Amino acid sequence: MPRTRPQTLSVTTVNDVAGRLERVVTVLEGMPDRVKAPLVPSAGAYNCRVVVDSGLPSMHAFGAAIDVGVRYSEYWAWSRSRGTKFDPGQLPGEILEAFEAERFIWGGKWFHYDGLHFEYRPELFR
């Protein structure tokens, strides 16, 4: 995702999601490599799929979500099957702040956590 490790990601331009993600990337580029390490590789953005066990479209299906840091993150269903625990502290706070500044929420804060996942949800911010 950072320009130092380029990847082609498809996201929507609706509500300036692409522009907002570009601003996040610009902020992240100014961070030390040790902070950026958990971002790569990205697991992608646009993907026409549903939310597990719901049948409802994922925010990925609308091109308004991105999964980052596959090696550094955890997903509730993976943890359950592996018997591992999720440590939200694995994601540097600077990364979370950069995404939240552009109104992306982090799936690592959810009960059914998805530590790789950020999605654009401006209505959840004041």
TrEMBL record:
Gene3D superfamilies reported in the protein's UniProt record: 3.30.1380.10
InterPro entries: Peptidase_M15C (IPR039561), Zn_M74/Hedgehog-like (IPR009045)
Organism: Dankookia rubra
Peptidase M15C domain: residues covered: 57-120
One GO molecular-function entry: peptidase activity
Protein name: M15 family peptidase
